[in-house]
Amino acid sequence: MKTRIEHIRLVTPDGIFGNASVLLEGNVIAGVSTDGTVLSADTVVDGENRYLSAGFIDIHLHGGGGHDFMDGTEEAFIGALENHMRHGTTSCVPTTLCCENEELAETFAACRKVRDSEKAARLPEILGMHMEGPYIAPEMAGAQDPDYIRTPENEDWDAICALAGGDLKIWTVAPELPGAIEMCRRLKDKGIIFSAGHSAARYTDVTAAIDAGYTMATHLYSGMSTIIRENGYRVPGLLEGSLLHDEICVEVIADGLHLPISLLQLIYKTKGRDRMVLITDAMRGAGMPDGGYLLGSLKKGQMVQVFDGIAHMPDGISFAGSVATTDRLVRVMVKDAGLPLTDVIKMLTVNPALELGIADRKGKVAPGYDADLVLFDDNINIHGVWRGGLQVV
Ligand SMILES: [Zn+2]
Description:
Distance between the termini: 19 Å
Bound molecules: zinc ion
């Protein structure tokens, strides 16, 4: 059974191709036409001259649709994933906050159950889990619960890896903590990506982290050190180290509120289109009306307030995560920051696929690639989502 999506403007990092069509067969892309050649198919979908791109990959999100992945239930995973899928996310890396290992165990177990269920074919693909903590700098905790912050001890991270059973893909660890560099050296060869974040690292800590194998920085600008003065001399922090070094790919919360448009433009100017990954960092309130929501699990979360398009901590001066969805990230970067659509789509497709080591099957609209696709209009409203060849939205 072959399906052709025709009359589309195909968006790729190399350009936008008008009157293109894409052929899906089974769960993969079987053909792409940008020169008017007709790809024969059993069924045809009219794209109505909208944009079609590879599906969006979100590597840092905590929940949505009223659910947090740390609720630790299949219902929570399914609810949050469905919410983000409606906005263009076709694969993702669900993310945890600092917590006890028992809560992690429940979350990893729920993740496995959902991923192995029949329902999984109609949900964004879970590409593994992202652990944001618990090895972070207390002074950079942000909205994280300080009770669960600790330093990396061999027995503890061994135990967490055992709980994860190979599903741990990204680990946000403050590299300046004692034991962090050793931990990175030991675990990066097991396929875990180390991301520097919630960190008070000084510049020398950043270069040591890069030497050890860190390749990412977690939500650039948020929860990280910047320049301080020691005896009059300026000492750069994690922010400057991340901007300077090409080895580091930076996560950017592009909801338009965590960072002003000028900083989004500055990151683009310094890191360029190849070393940025857009993330939602969405919490439970994403895709929901304004109101009070628990940040973290139902059992141990803290109540925060969602209004004006963002979640606020009770102190009223800091943010408690975003309520963004991936379509909004594209809208902000294109409409407000004025960046090329081709580059912005790259930051949500090819770039995260490359970081995760799955760029041979995800992130591109090309024959043989997973048929994960998003159809959207000029205002980046989603009109169709395909996941593994199935139209799910
Ligand atoms: Zn987060």
